Amino acid sequence: MPTIHQFVPTLLKSDAVGSHVLEIAKVFEANGIESEIFVNQPQDDHVGIAHLYSDYPKIRRDGDILLYHVASASPMADFLASRKERIMIDYHNITPAHFFRGWDDRTSDILDLARMQLQRLSDITSFAMADSEFNRSELDELGFSETAVVPILFGQDNVLTNTSPIPNGTRADHAGKGPTWLFVGRITPCKAQHNLIAAFAAYRSTYAKNARLILVGKPSPQSYFDALGSLVEELGVADSVMLTNGVSAQQLQAYYVEADVFVSLSEHEGFCVPLLEAMHQGLPIVALASSAVPETLGNSGLLLERSDPFEVAAAVNLILTDTQVRSELLGRSRTRMSELSLEKSTQSLLSALRQASVIPGA
After folding, report:
1. For position 315, what pLDDT does the model report?
2. Does domain 159-339 have CATH number 3.30.1490.110?
3. Would you state the torsion angle of the CA atoms of residues 346, 350, 351, 356, taken in this order, to the nearest 10 degrees?
4. Distance of CA 76 to CAs 69, 115, 162, Å?
5. pTM over 0.90, yes/no
6. Sequential DSSP letters for 253-287
7. What is the C-alpha separation between 287 and 346, in angstroms, rounded?
8. What pLDDT is recorded for position 174?
9. Is the pLDDT of residue 173 over 60?
10. CA 79 remoteness from chain centre
11. Helix crossing, 16-30 with 342-355: angle to 10°?
12. 14 pLDDT tier (thresholds 50, 70, 90)
């Protein structure tokens, strides 16, 4: 069997990409593939798990394969571009820079650099994997010659695997607080929380004046977060919108228990893990049909073609008041979750490695 070393700029166990990397390491070990993980800067909790990427030449052997996880700009990309070993990539999506222009020009420039680095790697990459067909199509446009879709592999530190689904009929008692909307994701322009707040305001004025909206995520950038604070004041919903920061897995679970519906008007997603978290927790979903969202969600939620506030409000009202629609969607969610299970994603990974002639065919 070959040796396949994974290179990931940042390794966070609770992060979707970090979990994916660690699960891939387990798959490699189970299939007799030698492997180490290399990062930009090892952290205390990386002891025995990850190494500084610039130390790789000290352990290299002929025949090594280097698998690079791409999501942003990194000096690691230039390091790998200079190597003679066989290069593979796993593409987790790079947010288009225009979403940040005017909000955070530095981040916008970094994202432009990331796409340039990815383009450069297209000439030397022998095989590329992507989390979704949406991401894979971007690789095709950039000239990657051989590609495959391998959905995210979820590990034990994820809400999908370390919590039990909430049984039907056992959601939190809101004690008269009204329907609760939830969205989970970085508070950032591409996630379009501004459109979500506008839709929520329309819902409050039309259907339920005591409704609440919980937005879970870290601000990126702060200027966008501050603008959302001004928006909720302007729309008169400041008393019913909760803007959180980063939360623990336990806190996140509590918000899922508290919610009645998951609403996403995000305009750019390479996969969108929170959709699976919502399905796992038995939440009905209303989502804008953008980027990879329709692919991840399948037919297990209400997909909208635009973010018109009153259309979104009407869709949420339907899903919360029509028990037949809600029950059917939740049943489809359980089916979709099984299609994206760890076991099936692992099989997709092994199939891709066979396609790349890294491991023998079955």
Report:
1. 98
2. no
3. 140
4. 10, 14, 32
5. yes
6. HHHHHH-SEEEE--S--SS-HHHHHHHHTT--EEE
7. 27
8. 53
9. no
10. 26
11. 70
12. confident
Instruction: Give which of 135, 136, 131 is closest to 154, Cα–Cα.
Output: 131
Query: Number of helices and strands (H, E) in the chain?
Result: 13, 13
Q: How many CB atoms lie within 10 A of CB 361?
A: 7
Whether the domain at 4-151+341-355 and the domain at 159-339 fall into the same CATH topology: yes
CB of 69 within 8 A of CB of 89? yes
pLDDT-based confidence at 169, cuts 50/70/90? very low
Nearest to 336 by CA among 277, 291, 268: 277
- Rounded (to 5) percent helix, strand, coil in the chain: 45, 15, 40
**First-last CA distance in the chain:** 14
pLDDT tens track for 97-106: 999 999 999 9
343 alpha-carbon distance from chain centroid: 19
Would you mind telling me the total number of residues written for the chain in this entry? Answer: 362
Cα dihedral 334, 339, 344, 349 sign: negative
Which pLDDT tens digit goes with each residue over 114-123? 999 999 999 9
Secondary structure element (H or E) that encloses residue 70, with its range: strand 65-70
Residue pair 83/47 in contact (Cβ under 8 Å)? The answer is no
Q: How far is residue 323's CA from residue 147's CA, in Å, rounded to a whole number?
A: 42
Sign of the torsion formed by the C-alpha atoms of 284, 287, 289 and 295: negative
Homologous superfamily of the 4-151+341-355 domain (CATH): Glycogen Phosphorylase B; (3.40.50.2000)
The per-residue pLDDT for range 177-206, each reduced to its tens digit, is 799 999 999 999 999 999 999 999 999 999
Q: How many Å separate Cα 80 from the centre of its chain?
A: 25
The Cα–Cα gap between 124 and 262 comes to 41
* pLDDT at residue 283 greater than cutoff 80: yes
Q: How far apart are CA 18 and CA 153, in angstroms?
A: 10
> What are the extents of the domains in the chain?
4-151+341-355, 159-339
Q: Which of 140, 85, 93, 160 is nearest to 345 (CA)?
A: 160
Sequence letter at residue 50? A
